[in-house]
Fold:
Amino acid sequence: MIDANKDVGWKPILDKFFEQERFSELMAFLDQENLANKSFYPPQSEIYEAFNKTPFDRVKVILLGQDPYHGIGQAHGLSFSVNDGIPFPPSLRNIFKGLKVDYPSYVIPLSGNLSKWADQGVLLLNTTLTVGAGEAGSHQKKGWEEFTDCVIRELSSRRKNLVFLLWGNFAQSKSTLIDTSKHLILQAPHPSPLSAHKGFLKCQHFSKTNSYLVQNGLEPIDWQL
Structure:
């Protein structure tokens, strides 16, 4: 759950979902997976890592993913991010390529761990927070989407001047949850190898994000890892 030992500001906001029957059904599903000895990712201690890393009042940017990575040791609760020492998945590799296009001096990092972004206010949120080992999409439509829709709505209504990075059709479908009079939405094709060449690599979302933040009196994100 959300780390009760940290004042991250999320629990009071999300309690209304935690108390719903749908959340109980979701937890029961994960319990059944455990009882059946079915592995899923990320580890249970890291399912809510995005919230623990980025307190509610410090969110500046929301980078919306879909599923966690479903390979061993990859996912650690932050969208698009992998643990230290794990090879870059193709989408993450293209994110770094896009940064290099946007900022020619950008140095491709040795690690794909994006925790530094999270610490600066980039909420690295997957819309589904768990996935079965080796089974992409296996935990979709179990209740996570209602939970993360709630997160997006609360951010939209309670905060202002946030940047929502919506890459690909699925992420873009969430734009209806966002008040565009208060926030900036940046949309582009997904960074996967199937679509990155259709506009993602040259979208310049990273510099556009920082320009918007600065215009609104906020510190820009240091994208260099």
